[in-house]
């Protein structure tokens, strides 16, 4: 025995766990330490970090800028509200929610024309127009064109809200020629929250054959020769074929009727002589055919100068001495740009409840000494007639707007007799 009791000192066996003399337990007391709580705290913190990271990632994914891509129609959602965006070349279809993914038009060789590509925005749930609310969310709206194989890129005007198409959010005029072929019209919107929206529509222009007559090789020096030429055109040329006449610098007496075609009627000058009509010129294009007249004088003593039954575009023409210089009858629309109207009882008159085409910009005209410069009895649509750059002077009445049609004269000039 070599082991001693830790209390009384008596010798004990080596393996004794207590002393038989004093009954003392022979194991030394050891300090029992409380378990460390930092491990549990660290584990809880790690869980919180993971949760916060997951929430942050979910928040970031939810609020990350989104891209919306489609053809002529896209549904865009922001702050729980959905908007239906669509492209169209027709206002009637646009306001009723019908997108136009492609359009094909024909144009005679060598000609240039334009179409308004329109972006409409409707409330996805109600179908009501919502462009005013939507455009407040837009940072920028851009248009581009991508020509197809063997096609030429069309020109375009950057999109804006156009009062001539008050129901559309944005309008871009697409300017094309007979050689434009096929172009994809690409719209790209960037929203203030960083979202992007892409839409597209396809415009195809097919070249159309045309009949072109020049005075150098076609008899049209007199009223009789011109009427004979027009009669042969009506008999031999399809109404779907445009006809372009380059008239000599002569005076045509008597009434002349241009029938159912697309017409390009171009005057000329030779010294003091200018292509002149002294009788009524009637334009009878039907079902979308139209007429363009340029560089011609209309001199009368009474009656009507231009009697239009189709869309008629007048440029660089002058009218003097008519009861009514130019009138748009039912189914027609008369436009004038860079024209002069002097000493007519009525210069421009509109009396049409429907039209196959419209052209509301009346730029840089001169209305002087007329009884009434512009008389609007009836006019279809809601396009705003814009007289920017036009001058009204010494007329008894500048604009007699019986139909209460929308007219913009903010950039027109009104002069009094003293001026």
Class by alpha and beta content: mainly beta
Distance between the termini: 142 Å
> Average pLDDT value?
89
Highest-level CATH class of the largest domain: Mainly Beta
Portion in helices: 10-25%
Reported CATH architecture of the largest domain: 3 Solenoid
| Largest sheet strand order | 15-20-23-26-29-31-34-37
Transmembrane segments: 41-61
Keywords: Membrane, Transmembrane, Transmembrane helix
InterPro entries: Pectin_lyase_fold/virulence
Protein name: Zinc ribbon domain-containing protein
Any overview of this molecule?
The protein is mostly beta strands and 419 residues long. The protein has two domains: 141 residues, Immunoglobulin-like; 205 residues, 3 Solenoid (Pectate Lyase C-like). Helix content is 12%, strand content 42%.
Give a short overview.
With 419 residues, the protein is mainly beta.
List the helices and strands and how they pair.
Layout: E1 3-4, E2 11-12, H1 38-63, E3 67-69, E4 73-78, E5 81-88, H2 91-95, E6 102-108, E7 112-123, H3 131-135, E8 138-147, E9 155-156, E10 170-177, E11 181-191, E12 196-208, E13 211-214, H4 223-236, E14 243-246, E15 251-252, E16 256-258, E17 263-266, E18 269-270, E19 273-274, E20 276-277, E21 281-283, E22 290-294, E23 297-299, E24 304-308, E25 311-315, E26 318-320, E27 324-328, E28 333-337, E29 340-342, E30 346-351, E31 366-368, E32 372-378, E33 385-386, E34 391-393, E35 397-401, E36 407-408, E37 413-415
Parallel strand pairs: 3-12, 6-12, 13-14, 14-17, 15-20, 16-21, 17-22, 20-23, 21-24, 22-25, 23-26, 24-27, 25-28, 26-29, 27-30, 29-31, 30-32, 31-34, 32-35, 33-36, 34-37
Antiparallel strand pairs: 1-2, 4-5, 5-7, 7-10, 8-11, 9-10, 11-12, 18-19
């Amino acid at each position: 025995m070599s082991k001693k009791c830790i209390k009384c000192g008596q010798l004990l066996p080596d393996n004794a766990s207590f002393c038989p003399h004093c009954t003392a337990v022979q194991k030394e007391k050891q300090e029992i330490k409380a378990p460390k709580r930092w491990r549990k705290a660290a584990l809880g913190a790690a869980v919180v970090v993971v949760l916060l990271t997951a929430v942050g990632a979910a928040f970031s994914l939810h609020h990350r800028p989104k891209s919306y891509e489609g053809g002529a129609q896209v549904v865009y959602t922001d702050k729980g509200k959905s908007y239906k965006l669509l492209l169209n070349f027709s206002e009637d279809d646009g306001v009723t929610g019908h997108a136009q993914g492609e359009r094909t038009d024909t144009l005679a060789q060598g000609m240039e024309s334009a179409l308004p590509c329109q972006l409409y925005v409707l409330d996805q749930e109600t179908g009501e127009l919502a462009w005013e609310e939507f455009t407040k969310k837009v940072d920028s709206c851009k248009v581009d064109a991508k020509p197809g194989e063997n096609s030429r890129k069309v020109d375009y005007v950057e999109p804006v809200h156009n009062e001539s198409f008050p129901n559309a959010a944005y309008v871009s005029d697409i300017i094309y020629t007979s050689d434009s072929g096929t172009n994809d019209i690409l719209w790209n919107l960037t929203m203030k929250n960083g979202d992007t929206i892409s839409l597209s529509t396809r415009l195809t222009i097919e070249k159309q054959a045309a009949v072109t007559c020049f005075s150098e090789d076609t008899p049209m020096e007199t009223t009789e020769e011109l009427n004979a030429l027009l009669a042969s055109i009506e008999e031999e040329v399809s109404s779907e074929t445009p006809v372009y006449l380059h008239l000599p610098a002569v005076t045509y007496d008597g009434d002349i009727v241009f029938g159912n075609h697309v017409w390009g009627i171009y005057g000329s000058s030779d010294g003091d002589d200018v292509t002149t009509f002294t009788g009524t010129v009637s334009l009878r294009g039907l079902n979308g055919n139209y007429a363009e007249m340029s560089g011609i004088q209309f001199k009368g003593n009474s009656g009507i100068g231009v009697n239009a039954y189709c869309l008629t575009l007048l440029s660089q023409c002058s009218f003097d001495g008519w009861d009514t210089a130019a009138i748009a009858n039912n189914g027609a629309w008369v436009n004038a740009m860079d024209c002069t109207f002097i000493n007519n009882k009525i210069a421009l008159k509109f009396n049409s409840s429907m039209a196959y085409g419209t052209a509301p910009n009346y730029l840089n005209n001169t209305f002087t000494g007329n009884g009434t410069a512009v008389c609007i009895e009836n006019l279809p649509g809601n396009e705003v007639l814009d007289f920017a750059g036009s001058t009204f002077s010494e007329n008894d009445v500048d604009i007699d707007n019986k139909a209460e049609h929308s007219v913009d004269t903010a950039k027109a000039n009104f002069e009094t007799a003293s001026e």
